[in-house]
Amino acid sequence: MKEIFVDLGTDSYNITIDNGILNQVGTLISKVITPRKAIVVTDNIVAPLYGKIVLDSLSECRFDVKLVSLALGEEQKTLSKAEELYEHLFDHEMDRKSLIVALGGGVLGDLAGFVAATFMRGIPFVQIPTTLLAHVDSSIGGKVAVNHPRGKNMIGCFYQPKAVFIDTDTLRTLPKAEITAGMVEVMKYGMIKDADFFEYIDKHLPEILALDPDALEEIIYNSCKTKASVVELDETEQGVRAILNYGHTIGHALEALTSYKKYRHGDAVAMGMIYVSKIARAMNLADDTVLKRQESLFLKLGLSLKDTELNPHDIVSKLYQDKKTIAGKLRFVLPTRIGNVIIDDSVSDKTILNALTE
Ligand SMILES: NC(=O)c1ccc[n+]([C@@H]2O[C@H](COP(=O)([O-])OP(=O)(O)OC[C@H]3O[C@@H](n4cnc5c(N)ncnc54)[C@H](O)[C@@H]3O)[C@@H](O)[C@H]2O)c1
Ligand SMILES: [Zn+2]
């Protein structure tokens, strides 16, 4: 078992990582929050896999708990789905002290966290993430949101969970493509802050993809540790937290231009990481090995890195519509070497276009 303390003053919490802890979550949660009325929120795919084990564990520890399973996907991460969940909270007579337990992937965690943040001006919640992306990214850091027809994650706030419990065994039922998508975020942490970790991933990829428990614990622990350290410095993304968006600026544009249908998030971010590495190379910030090492790891993951359909000019236009664009300036996270990035808003449209068409 590994633990990470996320130091955010009065909003601090622990991340616990281990295999086979779902049947102990009742005990673990009751160490942080005294037993009370609670709802386990999950989706229709995760409910039959892990709903009962979590529900039973909480009941055994004297939580007055009910399971709510939602039909959910990225298209349903909406305000109307949040309203559906508020109804369940009222039906179960939840009050300001009651607890929400979010059991699922990033979509479920973002939605349940948003509802926890807004129901009666905020009630406690804990995260039990069940996808690799949720283990290493969405369950930590307190960004909660729903989508709006005008854009992804446009309605939301910062609201930290009381604890995060990561059971690496949950990855055994996850489709392979979801593991690959999560691995892109794992690689991101190596790229932005930790060259040794990048080497570890490169060397141990077969064990990781075979879901070896020690390898999984290692990559999840390192990823969470890096994310936590960045969030501690800049909880509400005023500055340095932006490095977590490495690969995401262009990645988001690719996703948006294809209406979120063609690419998985991880696939689009991988392409984004390649494009910004080309930009960094063109600006003499990074050498060719930075690009080549990422490309080689992506290929080992089985990702295809070419977009042949989109017009590069459309991609650049889309970049200017991103919510992270500040005063009309594009902000890029550029690698200088494996394990280090800088934030730069001086990249010219011509350099971007060259990287996209190369
Ligand atoms: N809050 C943040 O900081 C943050 C960061 C990154 C991403 N996100 C958000 O996360 C979302 C993507 O999350 P995701 O990649 O986890 O996708 P997801 O939540 O859609 O899960 C992918 C699929 O896997 C299923 N699933 C979940 N756990 C499973 C398991 N253990 N076994 C079998 N199937 C399982 C889900 O039902 C779903 O069908 C996006 O909405 C994105 O905006 C948020
Ligand atoms: Zn991401």
UniProtKB/TrEMBL annotation:
Zn(2+) binds at residues 185, 248, 265. InterPro entries: Dehydroquinate_synthase, DHQ_synth_AroB, DHQ_synth_fam, DHQS/DOIS_N, DHQS_C. The keyword Iron does not apply. The keyword Transmembrane helix applies. Its cofactor is NAD(+); Co(2+); Zn(2+). Residues 69-180 form the 3-dehydroquinate synthase N-terminal domain. It is an enzyme of class 4 (lyase). One of its GO terms (cellular component) is cytoplasm. NAD(+) binds at residues 106-110, 130-131, 143, 152, 170-173. Residues 182-325 form the 3-dehydroquinate synthase C-terminal domain. It holds the Pfam family DHQ_synthase. Its EC number is 4.2.3.4. Pathway: Metabolic intermediate biosynthesis; chorismate biosynthesis; chorismate from D-erythrose 4-phosphate and phosphoenolpyruvate: step 2/7. Catalyzes the conversion of 3-deoxy-D-arabino-heptulosonate 7-phosphate (DAHP) to dehydroquinate (DHQ). PANTHER family: 3-DEHYDROQUINATE SYNTHASE, 3-DEHYDROQUINATE SYNTHASE, CHLOROPLASTIC. This is 3-dehydroquinate synthase.
